[in-house]
Description:
By secondary structure, the chain is α/β, with parallel strands linked by helices. It has helices spanning 48-63, 73-78, 85-102, 107-110, 131-143, 159-168, 187-191, 211-217, 233-241, 252-255, 258-270, 284-293, 343-349, and strands at 2-9, 12-16, 20-26, 29-35, 118-120, 122-125, 148-152, 174-177, 201-202, 224-226, 247-250, 275-277, 317-318, 328-330, 340-341. The chain folds into 2 domains: 2-104, Enolase-like, domain 1 (2-Layer Sandwich); 118-340, TIM Barrel.
Amino acid sequence: MPLIHFFETSFGRTTERHIVLVEAISSGVSGWGECTAGENPFYNEEWTDSAWLILRDYVAPRVLNYNLENASAVDARTAHIRGHNMARGALEVAVWDLEARLASKPLYQHIGGGARREIPCGVSIGIQNSVPELLQKIETELAAGYQRIKMKIKPGWDVEVIREVRARFPKILLMADANSAYTLSDAARLKSLDEFGLMMIEQPLAHDEIIDHAKLQAQLQTPICLDECIRSAHQAAQAIAMNAGRIINIKLGRVGGFGEAKRVHDVAQAAGIPVWCGGMLEAGIGRAHNIALATLPNFVLPGDVSASKRYWARDIIQPPVEVTPRGTITVRDAPGFGYDLDREFIDSITVREESIP
């Protein structure tokens, strides 16, 4: 699926997505999951082709031909697989969707959500070719009603760029996402961002680093939001105990599905740490799952769940995800994740398919 506009972070530029979809079938009903792994092992160790093999050879065989008491049992069946949370989570969320459909319930209700019927939306804007391009993109997204702007940063595209953004947009909710582009030796530079009143700096240090984030947070007024380094509720609890950050971004794929996402949510809520739903350039299935997740009560900050048309000329669901003029997504009450599949389009762009009986 080619992106309408390239998306650039500190570790590269993405122009098209290669996505693995998982269909879980029982009693003639299908549930669907989307693997959020990227095309390269840069965000974490996973990528599209690795996810395919892990799903086919390890995850699916451990779930098939086993009497699952409920969807929450999937997690334990694959927990001994080291890492590969995105592959594991792709099947886990498909089974949650399947179970919701078998029960004729909306997925958001089935996972225990429903604290809100409209999801507040922000957008994530990648590194642009120039500052004027960035300012124009921010102007466009604000005009569309989005409630929060996240901009990607990296060394050389940080302090001065944010200064220009703040000068143009002094009152908007603004955050910066570093995708692990800095080290603790950059603390002074990151501290200089305090003057801009950012909501947060997301994952400034290494993808597996908690201790140095605690050291950095002690030096900053701006809250640190942890992303890549939180893969489980246990790691969330450790980070909170160390004051390594004041906000957590929960991504379904990164933590392995709804079961662990709910546990991370609960740990953060008990500690008074707000969470929000991050995005991984998902197509419609993953986007719909994110909407369901974001109805849990502690998702109090605008997430990265935005309209399909920001990314795709045509999405794989019908209707596409749309954002209201208020910068929200209305939660749908149809069974499962709430949207129909555009099977004709999916079939037309499918390059590989495999069934595991």
